[in-house]
Amino acid sequence: MQNYLLQVVDHSKSMVDSAMQGASQSMSPHNSSFITDLAIIMILASVVTLAFFKMRQPLIIGYLFAGMLIGPLSPLWSWFLPEGSGVLGLGGQILSDLNVLNIFAELGVILLLFVIGIEFPYSKIRSIGKVAIGAGTIGLFLTLGVVFYVSSAMGLSFFDSLFLAAALSISSTAVLVKILEDTGRIKRESSILVLGILIVEDVIAVILLATLESVALVGSVSYEGIIVIILIAAALIGGTLTIGTKVIPRLIDRVAATQHKEILLLSVLGVCFGYSLFASFVGLSVAIGAFLAGVLVAESKSSEVSKILASPIKDMFVAIFFVSVGTLMNVSELGNYVFLALGLIVLAIVVKFGGSMIGNFLFGQGRAKSLRSSFALAGPRGEFSIVMVKTGVDIGAVSTFVFPLIGVISIITAFITPFLIRASDKLVSKIEE
């Protein structure tokens, strides 16, 4: 009996030791660094955005500025955390793992486009379809052609010029939608057109990315691949707006009839991420899938409740997305790229504005609507621009300096865009007087 009790005690002790070992592993330095990073991001972002709110500036600028402060390339922390100091185990930088930011950033883009999609039911999308395709295509390819020509004339290599031109021809959906939402302009008629054009540009961006990668690796254009992507995009959008609008909204309404908000939230988020996954699986952008999921939810009777439930989660991850963009800013090397970046920014804004105006006028849009949408589209470059250049660098077709250059351009254009939108309002007001 005594031996038995000793065996039980020994067994219990081994179980406790195993549990303690598992607990210590769960609290490993990797996990604690993740919590540290998240705490730093949230605390600093809240303080900085509060300051920008008090200064009556768009919150997106505060997010970007916070990212610049906490980024590993910020000179601010080198004063407090010199290289090799090992303070908090960070070794000269305040964040230990930027990969966490990348994961949260993708979630932010998905949720942002999903919630915005809820604002736009099928009837609104249908009303601007042809105009968005026409005006968006003209503005994008005119910008691509001019920027490629000027970049080549400046002495950049063929592929540097080509990838850079493609990156600067695409407006940032995440940046622009967030600014329009924060400034209360998201439901304007011109904003509906802008959103339609952004979706068209996202589809073209996927096609461009596949085409440029094919040219850089193989040396030739895969026309079959381009046609396949176009057909897939058309099938996904067409199927969503025909079959999807008849099936998904009814299912959401049945879930809403249970009057359990938690179940409804999980259901609409399931539609959001499921559709994003499906879009990614067929070779399209997750942003397109998220937006289309929002459009489907918009057709349900419980769309407003769904939006209210999903918005707080969206706000958190969108904030982290823009903070992560800010961390790309290499402040210490800004002087190496600032003049080239400023020149390309001016060129891209002017050409994109002109191309958008031409496209709007060709498709019969009014002067005020054309000005507002063209000013908005002219400014921001962001997620697709960064992805496109990074792809070129990864496959060895693009010089490494182009990546920090496009990072600088993305940050600066994000700062400029709110002022461009305000300028368009003032200009339209003067014209209408």
What does this protein structure show overall?
- The chain has two domains: 28-96; 112-432, Na+/H+ antiporter like fold.
- 80% of the residues lie in helices and 0% in strands.
- It is built from 18 helices and no strands.
- Helix 3 (59-70) runs parallel beside helix 14 (303-326), helix 10 runs parallel beside helix 17 and helix 15 (334-362) packs across helix 18 (402-432).
- The longest helix is centred in the middle third of the chain and has 34 residues, at 223-256.
- The termini are far apart.
- Mean pLDDT is 78; it is low at 1-9, 15-29 and 82-92.
Distance between termini?
100 Å
Average pLDDT confidence is 78
Strand content: under 5%
CATH architecture descriptor text of the largest domain: Up-down Bundle
User: Which structural class fits the helix and strand makeup?
Assistant: mainly alpha
Find the count of extended strands (DSSP E, 2+ residues): 0
Using only CA atoms, what is the Rg?
24 Å
Total separate domains:
2
Low-confidence stretches: 1-9, 15-29, 82-92
Helix content: over 70%
Q: What is the CATH T-level topology of the largest domain?
A: Na+/H+ antiporter like fold
Overall outline = globular
Number of helices: 18
Please provide the ordered H/E string of secondary-structure elements: HHHHHHHHHHHHHHHHHH
**CATH class type of the largest domain:** Mainly Alpha
Largest sheet: none
